[in-house]
Design brief:
This protein is α/β, with parallel strands linked by helices. The protein is about 45% helix and about 15% strand. Helix 1 (about 10-30) packs across helix 2 and helix 6 (about 155-165) runs parallel beside helix 7 (about 185-205). It is globular and about 50 Å long. The protein starts with 8 loop residues before the first helix and ends in a 6-residue tail after the last helix.
């Protein structure tokens, strides 16, 4: 693996050591909440690193990656393909504009950032036109911060049944981001997401198995509150991030 994309050996060691530390913290958080590590997918957010770092992370054991820009998702996949490397799972986790949908369809395993009914309908139409069924998450602004996009919990409740019925997409769950640098607010946000998911399951009859929440600073809290997917960038890839 990695012909033409050979990572620096020291950097590869760094990524492996950090993954071991992450998995140790994950195990502790699961133990505190009566869960097992098999219930949580650790996704490496590769938006700020190059394809060589993705190769290092694959060698360390990561099987899922997240990108926040469609053009960067395409660039990484093309680089891996050119190097003869079978691409791992890549998710689209960032803002998705309607004019970028075609870059993501057929490439992203899961779109985390369906932030409006308009976007859901646009993805549905493009996917149906291409004969695809695309797994998606509703982005929910559980914390209510004006700086964050997404459905409010009430908007999600009102829209969920209609969105679940759209052709071309499959509603797999919901996603949120917590306020930065505030552990108590993060816990309230993540528990709120869990409660919202339960409500949406009752309304739609869907399993909604994926709760995507928790990042480098707060992923252990997210796991304690029910996250099934955590999105880790700096802690996974940056030597500047203090463990």
């Amino acid at each position: 693996m990695g012909a033409g994309l050979e990572p620096d050996a020291g950097y590869e060691d760094l990524v492996r050591e950090r993954r071991e530390a992450i998995l140790s913290r994950l195990e502790e958080a699961c133990a505190r909440s009566g869960r097992t590590t098999s219930e949580v997918l650790v996704e490496a957010v590769s938006k700020t690193v190059g394809p060589e770092a993705v190769v290092a992370a694959m060698r360390a054991g990561y099987e899922a990656f997240g990108e926040n820009r469609p053009q960067e998702l395409v660039r990484k996949l093309d680089a891996l393909s050119a190097a003869g490397i079978e691409a791992p799972r890549f998710d689209m986790i960032g803002n998705l504009q309607t004019n970028k949908i075609n870059q993501v369809l057929g490439r992203a395993h899961l779109i985390h950032s369906i932030s409006s009914s308009h976007l859901a309908e646009a993805v549905s139409k493009r996917a149906e036109r291409g004969g695809l069924r695309v797994p998606v998450l509703l982005e929910c602004n559980v914390s209510g911060e004006a700086s964050k996009s997404g459905f409010s919990p009430d908007e999600a409740r009102a829209a969920a049944e209609g969105l679940a019925a759209l052709p071309g997409i499959t509603l797999e769950g919901i996603m949120t981001m917590a306020p930065a640098h505030d552990a108590d607010a993060a816990r309230r946000t993540f528990s709120g997401l869990r409660e919202l998911a339960n409500d949406l399951r009752r309304r739609t009859g869907l399993g909604l198995p994926t709760l995507s929440c928790g990042m480098s600073d707060d992923f252990t809290i997210a796991v304690e509150e029910g996250a099934t997917l955590v999105r880790l960038g700096r802690i996974a890839f940056s030597s500047d991030y203090a463990l």
